[in-house]
Specification:
single chain; 380 residues; alpha+beta; 10-stranded antiparallel beta sheet; 5-stranded antiparallel beta sheet; 9 helices; 17 strands; 36% strand
């Protein structure tokens, strides 16, 4: 071990075990009831043909970015950092590099959280730097997780993993394994807990009324005609007021939306739950993947209607043109952070079916430029 770990700064200590009747939302609810700040991401690893559930068990510290102010919180200590988010994340990851262990899932610890939509302005200074923010949300909210529960759906196997510094690995390994075994026993014997309450106290309503939204649609179309933009996703958000916790609908929500990507995240007074078929970018080893997804129809109520929608997606000039544009954009984005000549489209315009909708999907792969950090990939 010593001869193979000298270039690394951290090592994973882990145990694996069978976890009967695992359900991600249920486990998060149980953990939170027992005092853990548990958050979850479910990710479909297409390259391994399985779903991985990642549930945080211990967060070393948290980073929040709001209007160019970066705040670090560790326990009861909070400080304003002068460095950029990119600098802090790059430094933290460099100080926690670990070897690839073939029997472990791809993610064994690191940053878990979100980059908000408006984070794009940090990577592209041309964008407005002080956008309106009616919900007063952070631009980014990320926690560094050094202890994690992972579940491999295909193997029906769970892993408890803790990252430890290379200097402490030999002296702390046995003690950490004992702690993980105790945690395993706790996980497997936790009683069933009723989900927290959740209810709407004000019904959903559109952010823009019909006339206001129509004006924005026409303005967006004019920008396309003028050559200012290729495409604009103009959303009319629905908003409501609620009481309780979104975790109260977690189990049913994930069951009714069995998409490749699901998440539950709570930090402070911010809480989010979601399910999506789309993953922006994935890095496995030295390989990058992005998955353009454009062209949508709902699932048919009958076989004839299903076949009709499938044929529309495969032949509609607008859908094909939009998808081809996103493939080109994806190739260009990966090209900015990849070794020259390695960007390839490995799957083109495949029909992908999900519980509620069907999409046209493609896969683009490349070999990462070794000089590019994870945050450079996010910025691209």
């Amino acid at each position: 071990m010593k001869s193979t770990t000298q270039k690394f700064t951290a090592m994973p200590v882990f145990i694996k075990f069978k976890y009967p009747n695992f359900n991600g939302a249920t486990v998060v609810n149980q953990l939170r009831h027992n005092g853990f700040d548990a958050n979850m991401i479910k990710f479909n690893a297409k390259e391994r043909a399985t779903d991985f559930y990642y549930i945080s068990l211990h967060e070393r510290f948290n980073l929040t970015l709001k209007d160019h102010q970066l705040t670090k919180t560790s326990g009861a200590h909070t400080e304003i950092l002068q460095a950029t988010l990119k600098e802090v994340i790059d430094q933290t990851l460099a100080a926690n590099t670990s070897p690839v262990v073939s029997e472990l899932p791809p993610f064994i610890g690191g940053f878990l959280g979100y980059f908000g939509y408006d984070y794009a302005r940090y990577a592209n200074p041309v964008l407005p730097q002080h956008p309106k923010d009616p919900y007063d949300l952070n631009d980014a909210d990320l926690s560094f997780v050094d202890q994690i529960l992972t579940f491999d759906h295909h193997q029906q196997t769970a892993y408890l993993i803790q990252l430890v510094s290379i200097e402490d690995y030999e002296t702390q390994k046995v003690g950490i394994i004992q702690q993980l075994e105790q945690l395993k026993t706790q996980l497997l014997t936790m009683p069933q807990i009723l989900p927290p309450t959740f209810k709407l106290t004000q019904p959903f309503q559109m952010y823009f009324d019909h006339d206001s939204f129509e004006k924005r649609v026409n303005l967006a179309k004019q920008h396309v005609y003028d050559g200012d933009i290729f495409q604009l996703i103009l959303a009319n958000q629905q908003h409501a007021k609620m009481a309780g916790s979104l975790l109260g609908i977690g189990k049913d929500f994930f069951k009714k939306n069995p998409t490749p990507y699901q998440f539950y995240y709570k930090h402070g007074d911010y809480e989010a739950i979601g399910a999506s078929p789309e993953t922006l970018v994935t890095k496995l080893g030295d390989t990058l993947f992005t998955y353009p997804l454009a062209g949508t129809r709902r699932r048919g109520h009958t076989e004839a209607e299903e076949a009709k929608f499938m044929q529309e997606l495969r032949t509609d000039p607008k859908e094909i043109s939009e998808h081809n544009m996103l493939v080109d954009l994806g190739r260009n984005d990966l090209g900015r952070v990849s070794a020259f000549g390695t960007v390839k489209v490995t799957r083109l315009r495949e029909l992908l079916k999900f519980a509620q909708v069907m999409h046209i999907g493609s896969t683009i792969e490349s070999q990462v430029d070794p000089s590019k950090s994870s945050m450079a990939i996010v910025a691209a």
